[in-house]
């Protein structure tokens, strides 16, 4: 679900660069300073120029949108405080002209950036116009962001901030001059799924993650708040869920009148995998035959849709484990009377889906509800008009099955977008390790291994192999951070900058103007962007030694 933090570090932050004067374009050549994700179109007049930023720099924003006004103040402060020093010193000339009064002997300075927005009241929802245009005139005489919506203007502010850097020689903040940017995203849904059901993350870590998403022009924070391991969300109508289900002293998830196989050992017979009670440790599934299930479900849907105004409601539906329901006495009697597990799931989904739609939401489910071989529902229970399916198995094959069935698709293929993969398994007492060769394969001891490098993430085409008509049903993608082996101490490094790779691929694509994959060109830019993110307090992992950045191309496999 999309969310936003305090002053509007919003899930959907849009930045827009308008450069309207006719200047020479260098679309594919390396630039002294780069923007991530790479804009749709950006040119920087030669010789490359920069202008000093005034110590009183401010953003002139139209009134009428509190989020935009807050963003204007935030980015003005960031520009003056960031002190970002590029890893490679930009080769630019400092202009002698600019907007605003300059200090004596220092030449003119850029004193302000103007925002021009057509629609200040467009709501922050799926499909909102995120386009923008940015122009910084050659002599720094003026800087303008033009956008259709406030959210697009915010995208432009982020781009503007990335065109600025601290110059020690000048003892000043410089910003590129003679720049034109026209920009818009390829896909309307560019997200990160964070699992807080298995691991609790302090609010500060979640907000920092959302801030980093905004800087990467990602726009959907899919908050996987609950799972079988914990229910940390306090809901007004069902306080017992958090009281009994959240992590903490004396708190256990023991609602036995609601849940099948709750608290039982997940793998009663290690030699009989199909009989398992859960996909992993932490057994428990709602019992669709229990009447109270539907009372609680209704309360949860009503409360959550009241708490979060987003137009999507993710209803889960993945990895229904037959062994759990088969072990429940009431379900055993139901099956003996001719019932099936698929009908049991459809009973639950058929009750939940209309409730979600009645709250003016589009229901999102994991692909399993339709594609699982053992337990699934019919298409009539999840009409394509009100349903989006999120795919995570079998790469492009399952995406193809979903769109050919008429559904919109969010792509989160585990083979490309699961950021937790490749770190081994968390289940203990595993005799497989008695064999020293047991993890010599490519899986790294992980069901979805190997580890997904940034290049693997960047290279994936979410609509690859689809016809043009089928591709239109792909609304975008999400990288997924499942947290069986992740907590706040390692969160940033596990997510960033690999999530940045997806952010660019879904914003402006992963190919250059000739159609060739551009990961070779992206390497230095991502190293620079990771360096800036670290300076902003995001503990992103490095992707290469600094030696490589100082010697472009020398660390490639092919020159």
Report on this model:
The chain is of the alpha/beta class. The protein has two domains: 41-95 and 108-183, Chitobiase/beta-hexosaminidase domain 2-like (Chitobiase, domain 2, 2-Layer Sandwich), CATH 3.30.379.10; 189-417 and 452-550, TIM Barrel, CATH 3.20.20.80. The chain has 17 helices and 16 strands. Strands 1, 2, 3, 4, 5, 6 and 7 form a seven-stranded mixed beta sheet that branches. β14, α10 and β15 form a beta-alpha-beta unit. The two termini are 43 Å apart.
Count of DSSP H/I helices? 17
* CATH secondary-structure class of the largest domain: Alpha Beta
Rg from Cα: 25 Å
User: So, CATH architecture of the largest domain?
Assistant: Alpha-Beta Barrel
Overall number of structural domains: 2
Strand content: 15-25%
Keywords:
559 residues, alpha/beta, Chitobiase, domain 2, TIM Barrel, 2 domains, 7-stranded parallel sheet, disordered N terminus, EC 3.2.1.52, hydrolase, Glyco_hydro_20_cat, signal
Note the topology.
Elements: E1 41-60, H1 66-81, E2 93-94, E3 109-119, E4 132-136, E5 143-149, H2 150-162, E6 164-167, E7 172-183, E8 189-195, H3 203-215, E9 220-224, H4 239-245, E10 259-260, E11 285-286, H5 291-307, E12 312-314, H6 322-326, H7 329-336, H8 341-358, E13 362-366, H9 368-371, E14 387-391, H10 395-404, E15 408-411, H11 414-417, H12 454-459, H13 468-471, E16 474-481, H14 491-495, H15 498-507, H16 519-535, H17 546-549
Parallel strand pairs: 1-2, 1-3, 3-5, 8-9, 8-16, 12-13, 13-14, 14-15, 15-16
Antiparallel strand pairs: 1-7, 4-5, 6-7, 10-11
Catalytic activity: Hydrolysis of terminal non-reducing N-acetyl-D-hexosamine residues in N-acetyl-beta-D-hexosaminides
Domain Glycoside hydrolase family 20 catalytic: 187-251, 269-509
Protein name: Beta-hexosaminidase
